[in-house]
Design a protein that fits this description.
Rossmann fold, 46 strands, about 775 residues, Immunoglobulin-like, alpha+beta
Length: about 775
Amino acid sequence: MRRILILSLILLILIPLNQAGGVPNTKTAVFISKYSTRSMDEQTLDYYQRIEEYYDVYILEDTLVTKNDPKWKAYSQVSDLIFLINLNDEALNETRDSFCKNLSPALNESVGLVFAGNSVIFKGDENSSVSSCLYTEYFNFAESFRNTEIASNSIDITSSHPITEGYSETSYNLKENKKIYPVVYPKEGIVLAEVTGDPDGYGPLSSGNYPLITLWQGINHNTVSFGITTSKITRCYDCLNWEIFDQALNWASNDENMGYELSTDKDTYFLDERIEIKTESHVEIKDVDGKIIYPTGEVYDLLFIGSENEWRSLYLLQDEDPPGEYIISTNIEGLNRMKKINVKKMILDLEVDNNTEPILITSDFKDKYGRNLEVSSAKLIISKPSGLQEIYQFNDTDSISLSYDVTESGNYFVMVEAEYEPDKKQIGVKNFYFKLSPKLKFIPRNITKKFNERINFTESIMITNIGNEGVSNINPIKDGEISNWINFNQTPFTIGPGNSTEFNFGISVLGYQERTYTGYINFSSENGFNIFPINIQLDYLGNLEITPLSFEESLTINEAKEVEFLLENTGKGNLGIESISMSPEIEGWVEISNRPKFIIPNGEVPLRAVIVVDRPLTQTFKQIDGSINIRTENGLHSPPPSIKLKLYSDIATEVETFYPRLIEIEKRVEYLKEKTDVETFEQEIERLRTKIMNTQDLYNNEQLETSYEMYTEVEKEVEDLRKQVEETENKLEENKKRLIRLLIILGIIVIVGIIGYKAYKKIKGNKEYGWLYKKWKEH
């Protein structure tokens, strides 16, 4: 699956665009630093802008190399240049081993690597150092010596090389006096420029000249150290300037400066001769795997012997070997080279003199020493412009000669096939052009049509006699491979000088295969003949079928997934794919990693898309529905394949936000414990705590949808619990108020009763003793 992801991101990369937009350059570069966007410090940004002038640039944060992220693997395989500058401390220290290990496969990708600034640094010892990959076992380009203490403002060009072209071997201003990182002792590198100073301060190294620009060459890579942290190399007198930097990048990223050359001592051989083969490289060659491939398909091994950068092989041709085109194939460290050579039995000279009519065709057969060589048979084949052939046979001869009457205007193909032994032949070919004197003029001059299906149609030709005499008894004859497609009912006719006539005919397209079918109408007359060519191209339309038509993917932040659609051409014809783009909804979330351009009939190709969640989400869950728009030569495909993205934030972190709310609820429950039974609330709080932990476990086990469902449940249940507790509090408060009201009513009743009782006593007394008082008063 990883290989598929890398290849798909390829390819991707089939047509890379500059990240800033605009027209793509011819080369691509990976810009590796501690930054992931174009927001950089000034010096790093200066380097980026300079590279961006000539390359389509992929910005890549160095941590992605450390993690061997699919983006890094994809970018490294399709880029011409890998540029490293201003790496973070982890990439140079704690994670250096992983970073350098994952960077090292680029040495086998026919790519240029440029280490600039602190990517060349070595500080400390080999075990606990801040160190460049140049000093690790994965590159092993230099000895480990501290190189951080040089302070200088000049640089000396020491070698003549295409990288230093235009720079004399003298000193230039650098406009820099800090953060200059030389490679103190490079291993087998070419030193192009040096800087003066003491690289290790009080260490064992003395002050002197040390390499600042160094080139290491391999079969599949060019690596340059450019040990300048800042890019302030302009705007001063006699500055170093940008040209040397541009030339370093251009030369390092040019794959013509990598690899090796395969050559032979000559291009044409005779049987019984030796083939001398040489491979030569600018670097040491350790071994060469060689093959020789015969015209008949047999393959034989070649033994190469050599040392350092030059290896050679010999191969003896024998008389029983077939003449023809041979292929020499070599492989060095996975890099293939091929060279074609021609092997002959004889010298076969074929000459055509087409300055006269009839034309003269001659051929002589000689051995490799120039002596006449008799062959048992020789066949002369002449192919006319119409496709018709004429064959002439010669036996037991050392030469042939033929006066040939040309009957058609156009290009002729002549082939001589000489058999020198039974079933052993050598071939010679020649082309020539001849134009007959015209008498009839056709409008149009020919018929060339293209159809997507079998069809019937009619055409007409305006035939004009442009000669000075009449052309009589013109008899139209259909011929060629489509002669049975052509239909007309025409008797011989005559056209006087300067006159014209219209010739009508029909064509029924009867072919099945996709190709161009040819034929012609030969207007033969007593004055000669004229050919009217007809070319019918049958180009069936393709038909795109996509499976599946939709994908639904669930992802969380900092996660990437690949989906694959299968594009199938179910039509009869080839299908060209003009463009593939994302709908606005998923643009920025989904990247196409490969862009198929062509599908043969009944063929199928994968379309791979990488979904990357590389930005924070503003909500816990976000659903995005979009589609991939595929435009073929038949138009925009409908319906387009759709992608539904279910994006989840860090639910394990967000669900923890419910803990403070539970604590607040727990405090309120504790207060209620003195007034009512709260055991149910306490159990619910404990259950919710467990459910929060279960939610986190589900998320950590990548069960995103289930964890989100549980998250929403927890959110609702916490709120429901809060409302229940609040409702209980309200009920208790209402009961309290109701009791107080009841007590007040009872108090009023008691008071009213006491007052009533006293009034009753008073009234009753008056009634019982009123007569006595009245009697006393009368007395």
